[in-house]
Write a structure and sequence with these properties.
This protein is mostly helical. Helix content is 81%, strand content 0%. The longest helix is centred in the middle third of the chain and has 35 residues, at 23-57.
Length: 95
């Protein structure tokens, strides 16, 4: 007798089967993760320096804007990463 969880997982796999990734695709995905992690860290360091300066100057409104800018840029980079990963996972979508 199968549990409700097992039945749900079977239905999910029938609706959208899990695609097998080649070694090259896995390497591309890892490279993308690494590249975007570096981009996000780079932006964080740059904005952190500006944030420290503005906070020390007492301009807390600008500091809040910088923080929001970082969150926005990080979200955009993560969305871009997911788009690029999806292109790697489904090569037919590139044409």
């Amino acid at each position: 007798m199968k549990t409700a969880y097992e039945l749900a997982m079977e239905r999910l796999n029938q609706a959208s089967p899990v695609a097998k990734l080649s070694t090259a695709q896995k390497k591309q995905l890892a490279a993308l993760d690494s590249m975007y992690k570096a981009k996000i860290a780079e932006r964080e360091l740059a904005l952190q320096e500006e944030l420290t300066k503005t906070s020390a100057a007492g301009d807390f409104e600008k500091a809040e804007q910088l923080q929001q800018q970082f969150f926005s840029e990080r979200k955009a980079l993560q969305a871009e990463l997911e788009d690029r990963k999806e292109q790697v996972r489904t090569p037919t979508a590139q044409t």
